[in-house]
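Hey team,

Sharing the DUF2911 domain-containing protein run so nobody has to redo it. Sequence (181 residues) first:
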Amino acid sequence: MKKVSMLTAIGLLAVLLTGVNNTVLAQERGNEEARVSPNATVSQTIGTNIISISYSRPSVNDREVFGGSLVPFGEVWRTGANESTTITFSEDVTIEGQALAAGTYSLYTIPGEDQWTIIFNEKISWGTQYDENQDVIQVEVEPMEAEMMEQMMFYFTDITQTSGTAVLRWDDVKVPFTIKV
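Structure output:
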C-alpha cells in the first residue's frame, strides 16, 4: 500500500510542477451536462517541454464565422467557447521569436483578413473577461486558407527536438504559430 501511495504522491507532484493543474482548473465544468461546444485538450512534447492546449470546440453550424457577427475582424476573441482557452508550457519558450516563461496562459486572438494577433494573457476566466493589462506577449501571424472544418480544433505540426508549430483550425481558416524551446 505504501508503494502505491508513494507513486501517487510522485505523480501528483509531477502534475503540480508542470503547471498542468492550472489547465485542469481552467476547464472546470459547472455541471455534468453535455455541452454544445465540447471541451478538448491536445498535448505535445517538444524536446523535454510539455505543451498542452485546453479549449472548447464551437461548430460552424451554417454560420459566417470570421469577419461576421460571430467572430468579427479586428476585435478580441476568446478563441473558442465557454472557459478561457489555455496553453501550458512546462519550460520557457519563444513564440514567433518572443520569450514566454513557463506557465499557463489564456489564449486570445484578434482575427483579421490578412493578419491575426495571438495574445498570451495571465487571466484565466469564463468567457470574454479579457483584461489587456494581463497580456504577457502578443505575436502577429498570417492566417491561411484551409479545407472546411466544422468544429474548431488545435493541433501540432513540424515537430523537431527544438521547435514545433501549433495550429488553430476552424471553418476555412488555419492559423499557425511557431514555438521554440
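The chain has one domain: 2-27+37-180.

Ping me if you want the raw files.
A.
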